[in-house]
Amino acid sequence: MADDTAFSLLKQRSIGSSRAVFRPRAPTQVPEIHAPPPRSLYIHIPFCTHKCHYCDFYSIVDTRDRQDAFVSRLVRELQAQAPFATDPLHTIFVGGGTPSLLRPDLWQKLLKAMRTHLDLSMILSGEGEFSVECNPETVTDELAAVLQEGGVNRASLGAQSFNQTHLKTLERWHNPEKVQSAIETLRAAGITRCSLDLIYAIPGQSMDEWDRDLRTALSMPIEHLSAYALTFEPGTAMTARLVRGEFTQAPDDLEADMYRHGLETLRVNGFERYEVSNHAKAGAACRHNLAYWRQDDWLAIGPSASGHFRQHRWKNTPRLDDYLNLDEDGFAPLCDHEPPDDRRELMDLLMTGIRLSEGIDAKNAIKAADSLDAADALHRAAIMCADQGWLNDATADRWTLTDEGFLFADRVAREFIGALMTD
Q: Please, which contacts does 58-62 make with residues 24 or more away whose CB atoms are closer than 8 Å?
């Protein structure tokens, strides 16, 4: 398939309101957006042993043991999308769910298919980044060896907390001691790049307890740490429990203090913030997530996986039955598609880019906004945010958040997006 092939969207039989499948179409038939081939791939594996109460990602406790059927379907979708990835992949990220719950023999099948249908030369040489999310309880010697042999060089482990009381609040059931042993198992297999996820502002959590979680994490051989404030997403069990009054949400000022304490503690231990919630040692930022935040292109496979290619955005159906049973030459049924739109593309860039420590190229943003007759409004929004102390300098080449501004990153993004919506 030619490098300049574009995606088009075809509506077919219904899933809810519509069923949609991406198919290739010759570039002469659709307006072409010139961009390099996608160099990133996301794979979603939805299986979990238990649905954590705060989680709003698509995951299921599969009582029908459909792992074999799922991996076969995943390989078909991989084959269908592979022709679009004509360059070597730079990053791969496998998320979930709990990808480490997949059986090692099925991991071998998936990894073999990836080597067959994709150019993994950068990944296998160690120049690229291949991350897999792992639950500490499911990391075994066999799994670690299979992943390393398949090119995986980075693992992201969901620790969330090392306090059993707070893990119970989150409905996380792993033994905190398993985090250290999981890292040791991965490193012994040759997967030496490890990241931990922590959650703070958990109901009932004190500053001292948050500090102990941070210091426990820092005692381990990790290069990256993601620290997320607990959010109560609509439709989650956690939010339902909050509404029922089972616990009280952490006060805003405590949450802000925990954020500042985490930033300072990580900074003095050699971890620099490169995104609102993400901290890494020098050179260890997650390159795959940076591709998202910089609005690069990426392919995506698996139920609920979202992709971005030449300003097309799409999301696969989040229902495993539909994903398994509806198959158009390998392409997955969609639940959402957004065609190219310059205004939306700039909105997305501003929303994600402002969260990065590197910030946004102000000149390019203003230029793009000018084509939408919104340059003056965007510039005024930047000046307002700088006056509030959230931006370092509205006249600089790059718009970057101040330390205090990182606490208001969503507000700054709303100001920028609002400016683009001005008539």
A: 58/97, 58/303, 58/304, 58/318, 59/96, 59/97, 59/98, 60/97, 60/320, 62/320
pTM across the whole model: 0.90
- Helix/strand/coil percentages in the chain, nearest 5: 40, 20, 40
In the chain the first and final C-alpha atoms are separated, in Å, by 42
* Separation CA 297–CA 36 (nearest Å): 8
User: For the domain 341-423, what is the CATH code?
Assistant: 1.10.10
Q: Give kind and range of the element (H or E) at residue 123.
A: helix 121-125
Question: Could you write out the DSSP letters of every residue in 150-191?
Answer: TT--EEEEEEE-S-HHHHHHTT--S-THHHHHHHHHHHHHT-
Between the alpha carbon of residue 377 and those of residues 59, 164, 247, 385, 416, the distances in Å are 41, 49, 42, 12, 8
pLDDT of residue 296 exceeding 70: yes
φ, ψ of residue 45 in degrees (nearest 5): -115, 110
- So where are the chain's domains? 6-293, 341-423
Q: Are residues 129 and 288 in contact, defined by beta-carbon separation less than 8 angstroms? A: yes
Interval 396-410: pLDDT, tens: 999 999 999 999 999
> DSSP alpha helices (H): ranges in 164-275?
164-169, 177-189, 207-218, 237-243, 252-268
The topology (CATH level 3) of 6-293 is pyruvate-formate lyase- activating enzyme (3.80.30)
